[in-house]
């Protein structure tokens, strides 16, 4: 039942996010029957970050819009990734912080056994800081959840 080291979904989500050539990375993932999308979001409100990622995942058919457990799994992966960006305190505007993030959403089976089913990974990279230009720093986050 092992995790195939070449199919580590979190690693691939981060590589896709940070890639100099995301189209090449996307084509490699598609050959493995994985689905992925990329996007950007900036906000002082965490719910807007969640909504942007959810919308991109639905629009790009990463998750099915009419299956609750898929939206639920995505939500938990997003929140876990936001914990990384916000250092465990998923608060933005209420504590005078803003983010400018690029995100990747990846869906696939990281296991050798196909019956293990699909998992979702959300990776976030960008800046967080006071809502004053030049008062931000880099941050990265990763969330992984099973469907």
TrEMBL record:
<protein>
    <recommendedName>
        <fullName>Hut operon positive regulatory protein</fullName>
    </recommendedName>
</protein>
<keyword id="KW-0010">Activator</keyword>
<dbReference type="GO" id="GO:0006547">
    <property type="term" value="P:L-histidine metabolic process"/>
</dbReference>
<keyword id="KW-0805">Transcription regulation</keyword>
<dbReference type="InterPro" id="IPR036482">
    <property type="entry name" value="Regulatory_HutP_sf"/>
</dbReference>
<keyword id="KW-0369">Histidine metabolism</keyword>
<dbReference type="GO" id="GO:0010628">
    <property type="term" value="P:positive regulation of gene expression"/>
</dbReference>
<comment type="function">
    <text>Antiterminator that binds to cis-acting regulatory sequences on the mRNA in the presence of histidine, thereby suppressing transcription termination and activating the hut operon for histidine utilization.</text>
</comment>
<dbReference type="InterPro" id="IPR023552">
    <property type="entry name" value="Regulatory_HutP_bacillales"/>
</dbReference>
<dbReference type="InterPro" id="IPR015111">
    <property type="entry name" value="Regulatory_HutP"/>
</dbReference>
<keyword id="KW-0694">RNA-binding</keyword>
<keyword id="KW-0804">Transcription</keyword>
<dbReference type="Pfam" id="PF09021">
    <property type="entry name" value="HutP"/>
</dbReference>
<comment type="subunit">
    <text>Homohexamer.</text>
</comment>
<dbReference type="GO" id="GO:0003729">
    <property type="term" value="F:mRNA binding"/>
</dbReference>
<comment type="similarity">
    <text>Belongs to the HutP family.</text>
</comment>
């Amino acid at each position: 039942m092992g995790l195939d080291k070449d199919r580590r979904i979190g690693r691939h989500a981060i590589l896709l996010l940070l890639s100099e050539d995301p189209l090449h990375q996307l084509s490699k993932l598609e050959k493995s029957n994985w689905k992925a999308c990329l996007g950007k979001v900036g906000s002082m409100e965490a719910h807007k970050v969640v909504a942007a990622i959810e919308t991109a995942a639905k629009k790009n058919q990463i998750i099915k819009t009419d299956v609750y457990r898929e939206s639920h799994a995505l939500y938990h992966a997003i929140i876990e990734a936001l914990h990384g960006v916000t250092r465990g305190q998923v608060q933005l505007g209420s504590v005078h912080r803003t983010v400018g993030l690029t995100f990747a959403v990846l869906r696939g089976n990281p296991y050798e056994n196909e019956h293990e089913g699909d998992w979702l990974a959300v990776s976030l990279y960008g800046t967080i800081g006071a809502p004053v230009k030049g008062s931000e720093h880099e941050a990265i986050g990763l969330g992984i959840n099973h469907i």
